[in-house]
């Protein structure tokens, strides 16, 4: 009997304390409400367009850094500008409306694109595929990637540009997607450079000019 009585008393006491702290939901009070977690009510955060002395211009909202790519800025392709959200070969690697890959790079391939592609390739692909593309990158040497594709394999040399773009974008087999790391134009630059790399292995003395082969002899 005494136990039941004390349980009822303790329950009533807890209820009274809870009611005292929380009050009736939505009820009006004269005193400011009790804040159980003041740091949630008053967070150390900046609201947009608020004064903020820390920044040189005194504002909480800053302009985008120089070089930020606007979503609405089109990609310059060989057949004109294309927006990033368009269902176009430059964005997908596919011939629009089909599952076929495009044969050739939709971006104008010039020396600047190749140089840029080399730069990106050496950063994003060489760790696995090696600077030469033969699959002997550092990841194989230290044993974290066993079978890395040799990009000079006949099968890969014969692949369309679109399929290689697709492999970079979405990955293949044990190779993860590199797409999220590299913007569309850079992926096509890598494809262009990879073609140059493959060509450099396929060259024969027949490709030399008469003067060059004479110099060889
Ligand atoms: C983390 C390591 C790694 C990185 C980084 C990487 N690859 Fe790969 N890649 C692989 C492996 C491993 C394979 C073999 C995948 C398989 O057959 O399962 C492969 C396969 C490929 C293939 C052949 C796909 C096929 O159809 O068989 C191509 C082309 C390729 N990579 C291109 C690239 C390019 C271009 C880059 C840089 C943008 C890149 N890879 C970055 C590991 C990597």
Describe this entry's structure for a reader.
The chain folds into two domains: 40 residues, no CATH class; 121 residues, Cytochrome c-like domain (Cytochrome Bc1 Complex, Chain D, domain 2), CATH 1.10.760.10. Helices cover 42% and strands 3% of the residues. The chain is built from ten helices and two strands. It has a two-stranded antiparallel ribbon. The longest helix has 21 residues. The structure holds heme C (HEC). The site of heme C has 21 residues, from α5, α8 and α9.
List the helices and strands and how they pair.
Blueprint: H1 2-22, H2 38-41, E1 75-77, E2 80-82, H3 89-92, H4 111-124, H5 126-129, H6 138-141, H7 154-157, H8 161-170, H9 184-202, H10 210-216
Antiparallel strand pairs: 1-2
Helix pairs in contact: 4-9, 8-9
The structure holds heme C (HEC).
Give the strand content.
Answer: under 5%
Total number of strands? 2
Based on secondary structure, the structural category is: mainly alpha
Q: Helix share of residues?
A: 40-55%
How do the SSEs run, as a string of H and E?
Answer: HHEEHHHHHHHH
Shape annotation = elongated
CATH architecture of the largest domain: Orthogonal Bundle
């Amino acid at each position: 009997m005494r136990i039941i009585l004390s349980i009822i008393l303790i329950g009533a006491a807890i209820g009274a304390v809870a009611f005292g702290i929380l009050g009736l939901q939505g009820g009006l009070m004269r005193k400011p409400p009790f804040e159980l977690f003041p740091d949630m009510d008053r967070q150390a955060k900046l609201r947009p367009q608020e004064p903020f002395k820390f920044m040189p211009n005194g504002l909480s909202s800053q302009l985008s850094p120089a070089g930020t790519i606007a979503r609405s800025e089109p990609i310059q392709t060989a057949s004109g500008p294309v927006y990033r959200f368009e269902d176009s070969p430059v964005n997908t690697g596919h011939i629009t409306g089909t599952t076929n890959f495009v044969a050739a790079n939709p971006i104008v391939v010039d020396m600047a694109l190749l140089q840029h592609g080399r730069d990106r390739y050496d950063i994003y692909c060489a760790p696995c595929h090696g600077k030469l593309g033969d699959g002997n990158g550092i990841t194989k040497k230290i044993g974290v990637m066993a079978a890395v594709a040799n990009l000079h394999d006949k099968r890969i040399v014969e692949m369309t540009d679109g399929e290689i773009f697709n492999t970079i974008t979405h990955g293949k087999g044990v190779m993860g997607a590199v797409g999220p790391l590299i913007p569309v134009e850079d992926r096509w630059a890598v494809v262009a450079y990879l073609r140059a790399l493959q060509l450099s292995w396929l060259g024969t003395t027949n490709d030399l000019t008469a003067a060059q082969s004479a110099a060889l002899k």
